From TrEMBL:
InterPro entries for this protein: GlcG_carb_metab_protein, PduO/GlcC-like, PduO/GlcC-like_sf
One Pfam family, short name: HbpS-like
Species of origin: Paenalcaligenes hominis
Protein name per the record: Heme-binding protein
Regions crossing the membrane: none
Length: 92
């Protein structure tokens, strides 16, 4: 993304990693952490993040095949874009 901060690359990778590892969007992970009163550190995995912008990708057989991570804009915009890409990917 033009003029996005360099650190957004690492954050996008962490968002995708989290969505792929857990099979849920990072927004859902954030909600889960709040509900259970946990922190990402409780999972003992330094790559996990609860920052919005990560969405899992599922194949036509509903199996997890990967994830997308978006970073560089406001976090809710990151999540909206990640969800849109996942929806498009699943439609092709």
């Amino acid at each position: 993304m033009d003029q996005a901060p360099v650190q957004s690359i690492t954050l996008a990778i962490s968002k995708a990693y989290t969505a792929a590892r857990l099979g849920i969007a990072t927004t859902a992970f954030h909600a889960q952490l709040q509900q259970e009163r946990l922190q990402t550190q409780d999972y003992m995995d330094a790559q996990l993040t609860a920052v919005p912008g990560g969405t899992p990708l599922y194949g036509s057989d509903h199996r997890l095949i990967g994830a997308i991570g978006v970073s560089g804009r406001h976090t809710q915009n990151d999540q909206t874009l990640a969800d849109a890409v996942a929806t498009y990917f699943q439609s092709i």
